[in-house]
Design goal:
7-stranded mixed sheet, 9 strands, two-stranded antiparallel sheet, binds 5-O-phosphono-beta-D-ribofuranosylamine, 35% helix, alpha/beta
Length: 198
């Protein structure tokens, strides 16, 4: 059994997509053992409650304390994989070193283009014709680690931030569960910057 911890700060739609993929058997032999949020008002916590998924709020302002609490929780629940899903804090080196190639994040652009916040707005403002989403392993730099999967999305002339975000999110909800499934089946091999899918 693979134990996942999903980290959220808000809506939690990717968290839900991963859990639904487990529930319907697309991802086998896996459970979300702990949801960690830095925001007690995160909408995604309602879904955790409704589905009896354990969750905890770790919202220490001091980064060192917060990270120590997170690490303790991950160890206590024997977590094998961390899925960052709209988690708005930067993960520090101690957690990353404890979970090498075991922390994933999804970002709403085709990295390395448009890292950081408001990636959809960045793509629109830049005049890009194509953007998308990137599932990647987390390393010490923000939105930088080895790329697991990407999906492209066409930007139409009349797209708004909202319409583009919705189009990208649709693919995020396919991409994240697929990446988790590949991880669970031990099919992801990280060679430097490259992730080979066996
Ligand atoms: C998504 O757009 C994801 O790419 C970004 O944050 C957003 C999270 O959405 N990292 P949700 O909370 O999973 O609905």
């Amino acid at each position: 059994m693979i134990n996942i911890s999903v980290f959220i700060s808000g809506r939690g739609s990717n968290f839900k997509a991963i859990n639904e993929a487990i529930k319907c058997g697309f991802i086998k032999n896996t459970k979300i053992s702990m949801v960690i949020s830095d925001n007690s008002d995160a909408q995604g916590l309602l879904y955790a409650k409704e589905n009896n998924i354990p969750y905890t709020i770790i919202d220490n302002r001091e980064k060192h304390e917060r990270e120590a609490n997170i690490l303790k929780t991950l160890k206590a629940y024997n977590i094998d994989l961390v899925c960052l899903a709209g988690y708005m804090k930067i993960i520090g080196p101690e957690i990353i070193n404890n979970y090498p190639s075991k922390i994933m994040n999804i970002h709403p652009s085709l990295l390395p283009s448009f890292p950081g916040i408001n990636a959809q707005k960045q793509a629109l403002d830049y005049g890009a014709k194509i953007t998308g989403c990137t599932l990647h392993f987390v390393d010490a730099l923000v939105d930088h680690g080895p790329i697991i999967l990407q999906r492209s999305v066409k930007i139409d002339e009349n797209d708004s931030i909202e319409s583009l975000s919705a189009k990208i999110l649709y693919y995020e909800h396919e991409t994240y569960p697929l990446g988790v499934q590949l991880f669970v089946e031990h099919r992801l091999v990280v060679l430097g910057r490259k992730v080979i899918i066996r």
